[in-house]
Design a protein that fits this description.
It is found in: Cell membrane. The protein is mostly helical and about 190 residues long. The protein is built from seven helices and two strands; from the N terminus they run αββαααααα. A two-stranded antiparallel ribbon has the order 1-2.
């Protein structure tokens, strides 16, 4: 149990550390950050439940005001900003990514983690992000989809990196990728 809590906290810290990489804020107020790759890694490495818990811990720390998001941002106000949909979608993205890695075992881990990161960390996350942008911006659905399309190239690169890192971690430390370990050790 203590190991699980430590890993959940460690991956929340990883997301925070990725916030130190400078952000690029787009004209409509949503930044491009490396932190979404941390969300992908949470799911791919920790699995669905532990990955989502790690992201929820990170978001709790942001909500109470710790400046952990890229650019030193934090506080409840972020959850009503144009970024809100993406932030709210992070736990779902980690969960879906982890679920796919846990259940798709017939392909190489690199491929599985890359595809899982695309489905969870891009498709699922963008659904939340688009809804958030529709609520916070005065734009149509097609306009919002075009705005979000600016994230696709970078997020595809992050998904590939997350898949490669997950596979490298599994090769270097067999058993350390909990999403592929025995699924009876639940939180």
């Amino acid at each position: 149990m203590e190991k699980n809590v430590a890993l959940i906290a460690l991956f929340a810290a990883l997301i925070a550390a990725l916030g130190l990489i400078p952000k690029i804020t787009l004209a409509f107020g949503v930044p491009i950050t490396a932190q979404s790759m941390g969300v992908m890694l949470c799911g791919a490495v920790l699995g669905s439940r532990k990955g989502a818990l790690s992201v929820l811990l990170f978001l709790l720390l942001v909500a109470i005001g710790l400046p952990l998001l890229s650019g030193g941002r934090g506080g409840l106000g972020l959850f009503v900003s144009p970024s809100a949909g993406f932030l709210i979608g992070w736990p779902a993205a980690a969960f879906v990514t982890g679920w796919i890695v846990e259940h798709w075992r017939l392909a190489p881990l690199t491929l599985v983690a890359c595809v899982a990161s695309v489905i969870g960390g891009i498709v699922v996350l963008y659904l939340f992000g688009i809804i958030g942008l529709l609520i916070t911006l005065d734009k149509t659905l097609s306009e919002v989809i075009w705005l979000v399309a600016a994230f696709v190239p970078g997020d595809l690169l992050k998904a590939i990196i997350a898949g490669m890192l997950t596979a490298a971690l599994a090769k270097a430390r067999p058993g350390s990728v909990l999403s592929r370990a025995n699924r009876t050790d639940a939180v």
